[in-house]
Amino acid sequence: MVVLAVSITTRKGKPLLSRQFNDITKDRVMELLSNFQNLLANSSKQHTFVEDEHVRYVYKPFDDYYIILITNLHSNIIQDMDTLGIFVQTVDSSLKGLSEDDIFDSAFDILNSFDETITMGYKENLSLTQIKTFLAMESHEERIQEIIERNKEFEAAEERKRRAKEITRKEQARKLGISDTQEFTGVHGGVMNKAYDSYYSNASSEAQQSHLSTQSGQVPQSNQQYGLPQQQQQQQQHQHYTNHEPLGGKGLQVNGPRRGVERPIKSLERQSLAVQPGASEPEEEKPINNGILVSVKETVNAEISRDGTIMSSELKGVLELRVNNPDLAHAKLCLGDNVNVKDKAYQFKTHPNVDKAGFLNSKTIGLRDPNKPFPSNDQSLGVLRWRKIKGADEHDLIPLEVSTWLSPSSEIEGSIDVTFEYEVNSDYEGTIDELRFLIPVFTDTVYVKEDLNEANAAIEAIDESQGIIIKVGSIESGQSAVFSVTVQAAYEDELFPINVVLQNSNASPLSHLSIDSVVSATDDSELPFDVISTLKSEQYVVV
């Protein structure tokens, strides 16, 4: 048996895919496929093959298409039929649908399966399972190379951030009249300490003794004699040495209040929105559990351009079960009718101890052994996970659409007005309770413009690692809001990427996953249960 080519055509003869296993030109393949249609139209016999004077066509109808095996006339027809059957199985397993677009989208997977089946024109003795295994095999070297590339990208991004901060420091130092960036960074420490050291080097022995005591953290004797507590004396010394005007300029100052301007947050009020690396995360408060508690937790990621165009989106979810009553531990969850567990757009994955056949066939989540109970220790157990990815300009997984408008500030030189316009997707059923915008700039010169603040926006914190944290009010489905902030920045790219942090504790799942009922795994009697759902963002950025 020698396989010359395998092709997929429509019933009307339109070629869609073809893989040649011998040295055959494209024009020759098109000629052979055209000849196949003529032979098929003139044939009155009900066979699955036709022949001409040069080749044999072994074919099989597949919905509105033909899968055609082109061999020579000396090929074994029995082996040809077996090979054609393998091809039909691989095509069927690779397609997500039966349209021409689905065939084109899965073209590489189909062609790779053809290459695994045929080698140098001869069929390999492989089953469909073996072909899938070969196609799914990963290359260790490729994974190592991908890790190296990701590390390089991460290092490059960190280097860009470091250089951006350095440029900002130099620009602020230039405005203050300080040429040395290092002296500007420690203007209260480096410059002032040098000035005091220079002064006290020529002062009296008593003054030098007092200065050395202050540097070592001790309270000078002259202060102790007034009977002030040591902590208060140290605070007075700190104020004495830091409230002087920096050398060479007025230093950083918080802008005073003006019309339509919100006073910025003081430096001493800065705080971090997220838990810093190395710090212990606060324990999540457990919700009330009346026996069986089902939690639907979803995390959404998105990348949105500055003009509001959706570039990519991803949804990840987990269904957790908590049981605190041993009498209810023999449970089985029945999903709602609107849940399509066979939807290939979602990548559902059940816990290894969950009956996967029952999940796919009857949309139930129960243990493989119905005689065994779920753990009743009131601890969350993830029984189902899912993931869905969407591409550009697809809004299915976007609960909040965001666009930004930038323009130079007319009030403060060297600042930029950033206007945020956002809207909750009308397809999203729920209210976004917690919403914040994180601008990656560390500066005190920032305020919300009161004349354009429909969102009740306020600067919550200014953090050195995360930048400016702006909190806005809650917003419901289908509603929109606008607010504008003025930020000191040398260039627009310094303000991006802007991270959007959203959270909703009573969200309607984006996956529309619902629990219809919870029944006993032994007698199918209904059991009482509660359901809570949450939605939060992970990497929801405007770039």
From the alpha carbons, calculate the radius of gyration and give it in angstroms: 34 Å
The average pLDDT score comes to: 78
CATH domain class of the largest domain: Mainly Beta
How are the strands of the largest sheet arranged? 11-13-9-8-25-23-17-20-19
Total helices: the number is: 12
Class inferred from helices and paired strands:
alpha+beta
Count of structural domains: 4
Coiled coil: 137-174
Biased composition (Basic and acidic residues): 259-269
Biased composition (Low complexity): 221-239
Subcellular location: Cytoplasm; Cytoplasmic vesicle, COPI-coated vesicle membrane; Golgi apparatus membrane
Please give a quick description of this structure.
The protein is an alpha+beta fold.
Keywords:
543 residues; alpha+beta; Beta-Lactamase; Immunoglobulin-like; 9-stranded mixed β-sheet; 5-stranded antiparallel β-sheet; 12 helices; 25 strands; 28% helix; globular; cytoplasmic vesicle; ER-Golgi transport; transport; coiled coil; AP_mu_sigma_su
What's the topology here?
Layout: E1 3-10, E2 15-20, H1 26-42, E3 49-51, E4 55-62, E5 65-72, H2 77-94, H3 100-105, H4 107-117, E6 118-119, E7 122-123, H5 128-136, H6 140-176, H7 181-185, H8 187-200, H9 205-215, H10 221-224, H11 230-242, E8 292-304, E9 310-323, E10 331-335, E11 349-350, H12 356-362, E12 364-365, E13 381-390, E14 400-408, E15 415-424, E16 431-432, E17 434-439, E18 446-453, E19 458-463, E20 467-472, E21 475-476, E22 480-488, E23 498-504, E24 515-520, E25 530-542
Parallel strand pairs: 8-25
Antiparallel strand pairs: 1-2, 1-5, 3-4, 4-5, 6-7, 8-9, 9-13, 10-12, 10-24, 11-13, 14-15, 15-22, 16-21, 17-20, 17-23, 18-22, 19-20, 23-25
Helix pairs in contact: 2-4, 4-5
Protein name: Coatomer subunit delta
Subcellular location: Cytoplasm; Cytoplasmic vesicle, COPI-coated vesicle membrane; Golgi apparatus membrane
Biased composition (Polar residues): 206-220
